[in-house]
Amino acid sequence: MRIRKTWRTLLAATLAVTLVAASCGEDEPETLSVGIAADGFLLGSQAWVSIDRGYFDEENLDVTMSQYGTGIEAIQAVIAGQADIGPALDFAVLNLAAAAEENMRVVAAIAAPRPGFHSLAVRNEINGPQDLVGKTIGYVQGTSEHFVTIRHLQQNGISLDDVELVPLPGLFELVGALRTNDIQAAWVWLNGTLEAQEDPDLKILGDDSNVLDTVAIYLVSRTEWADENQEIIERIVRAYDKANTVIQNETPAAAKIVADAVSGNEELFANIMPNQRYKVEFTQVQLDSFDAIAQFLIDSGVLPADFDIREFIDFRAMEEAVPGSIQADL
Q1: How far lies 328's CA from each of 41, 204, 281, 286, 297, in Å?
Q2: Whether the Cβ atoms of residue 269 and residue 259 lie closer than 8 Å to each other
Q3: Beta bridge partners of 138
Q4: In what side-by-side order are the strands of the sheet with 32-39?
Q5: What pLDDT, in 10s, does the model give residues 198-207?
Q6: Among candidates 154, 151, 179, 178, which has minimal Cα distance to 166?
Q7: Average pLDDT over residues 40-68
Q8: Cβ(330)–Cβ(313) under 8 Å?
Q9: How far from each other are the two terminal CA atoms of the chain, in whole angstroms?
Q10: How far is the C-alpha of 45 from the C-alpha of 139, rounded, in Å?
Q11: Are 201 and 101 in contact (CB under 8 A)?
C-alpha cells in the first residue's frame, strides 16, 4: 500500500514537471531571422560581438551577416531588399535619404564616435591646405569621408572649382591612387592611414577632429520592414546594448572578435574602438548634427529645401529595448 502511494506520488510529480515544461515551451519567444549588412571594418562591431558572445541567441535571433566595402553600400543593399537592417554613419544616412524617399527608416542610434577617425593623406610635396589648389583629390562618394573632404576645403577657403575631385570605390582604391600619383590627396582611415604613414612618398597632415563637430552611427532599415518587425529591432538593440558593455570593458577581446570576423587588424581595432563610443543613445547633440549635415546637403543641392530628418526617424523599438535612451526633442 505504501509502495503504491509512493508510485502515485512520483507519477503526479512527473506529470506536474511535464506540464510545467510544456507550458514554458509554449511561452518561449519564437526564433526570428534577420539579415544584417555592414562594412568590412568597424560598423558591424556590435553585431559580431553579439554573435560571438551569444547575445543574439539569447534574444532568439537567427542572424545572417553580409559584408560590404562601405557603410553606404551596406545601406544601399538594405534599401534594395538584399538585407533587412544595417549600420551607417550619419552623413551616409542623409545622403541616401533623398533617393530612398519614404523607403528608409532610422531605427536606432548605436554609437557616437569622437572625430579623428579620418586622416588626410597627401603626396610629399603638399605641406598644407593651400597646396591642395590645383591638385586631384580622391573621395568615396556619399560617405562621411566625402563630407570631411568637402568641409575641409570649405573651411580653408578653397573653392571646389580650384581642385579636381575624383570619386573612387573605397579605401583600397584611395590608397592605390595616392601611391601612383593619380590623386595627390585623400582622407583615409584605419589600414589606409597606416599604409600612408609607411609609404615614403606619402605623409599624414592631420585628422578630421578640426573638421567635424560630432559623428553618429545609426541602424537603418526599409520602412515596410521596420513597421512589420518592431520585435526584431527590439531584440537587436538589446543584444547591441550587451555587446557595448563587452566592447567597453573587454576591448582587446572585442577587437579580436571583430578582426577575426572581417580579416582586420586586431591591434588597430583595439586602439580605435574606445573612441567609437558604442552606446544605445540619441541625444540633442546628435539631432542638431543631423540638422547641420542636412543643411549642408540642402545647400549642395543633394536634399530638397524642405527636408526634415525627423520624418525618417522611428525609435519606437529603441525606446522599448533601452528605456530612457531617447534624450532629444523629436
Answers
A1: 29, 37, 9, 8, 22
A2: yes
A3: 166, 186
A4: 61-68, 32-39, 85-89, 217-221, 105-111
A5: 999 999 999 9
A6: 178
A7: 97
A8: yes
A9: 73
A10: 24
A11: no
Task: Report d(CA 110, CA 28) in Å as an integer.
Answer: 27
C-alpha cell at 13: 510529480
Torsion sign (Cα): 180, 185, 186, 192:
positive
Length of the chain equals 330
Task: State the amino acid at position 327 in one-letter form.
Answer: Q
Structure confidence by residue, pLDDT tens digits, 81-109: 999 999 999 988 998 887 777 899 999 99
Contact between residue 319 and residue 325 where contact means Cβ atoms under 8 Å apart? yes
- C-alpha distances out from residue 18 to 11, 21, 25, Å: 10, 5, 10
* For the chain, counts of helices (H) and of strands (E): 14, 12
Are the CB atoms for 38 and 87 separated by under 8 Å? yes
- How far from the centroid of its chain's Cα atoms is residue 255's Cα? 16
Question: Distances in Å between the alpha carbon of 309 and those of 12, 54, 95, 328, 330?
Answer: 61, 34, 11, 13, 10
Cell of 178: 595616392
**Phi/psi at 7 (5° precision):** -60, -45
The 10s digit of each residue's pLDDT in 225-264 is 999 999 999 999 999 999 999 999 999 999 999 999 999 9
pTM of the shown model: 0.79
C-alpha cell at 223: 520602412
pLDDT tier at 18, thresholds 50, 70, 90: very low
Q: Cell 573612441 maps to which residue?
A: 275
Write the DSSP symbol of residue 114: P
- Rounded to an integer, what distance in angstroms lies between the CA atom of residue 237 and that of residue 310? 20
